[in-house]
Here is the input.
Amino acid sequence: MKRILPYLLAISLLMNGFFAIRLMDGSNNAVKVNSVQVTQADANPSIQVIAKRPYIKKGEVGVLALKCAPDSNCKIICSYRVGGRDFTTTRNIVAGRDGSVLCTWKVDKNTDAGTYQIEILCGQNRLVTNYVVQ
Here is the structure.
C-alpha cells in the first residue's frame, strides 16, 4: 500500500494540472508559479510545469509533472541540504510520446527545511523552479 500512495498522488496531481490547463484556454500563468522559463530556440514555452507539489514535509514524496517535446531526453537536477551540507542529484528521464515527464522523489527525514531549486534541461531548453521542504 505504501508503494501505491505516491503514484496515486502523482495521478491526482496530473489530472488537476491537465484540467487547469484546459480551463485556462492556453494560458498557463497559474500553473507556472515560482518558475522561470529560459529558452534559446523560440519564444514559445518548450517546457511546461503541469503539476508539482511545492511544499513537501520531511519523509513525504515530491512530485513534478512536465510537458516538453515528445521523446526528448530531459535532465532534472535537484538541490537539497542535509546537516548543513549542500547536495545535488541528477535524474535523466526520456519524455513519453506525448511529451509528458513524471518525476517523483522522497524527501529524507534528515533534510534541512528550506527552499531548494530544481533545474530541468530538455534539449536546448531550460526551466528553473523551486520546492520547499517544511
Remarks:
- The beta strands are 35-39, 48-52, 55-56, 61-67, 73-82, 85-94, 100-106, 114-122, 125-133.
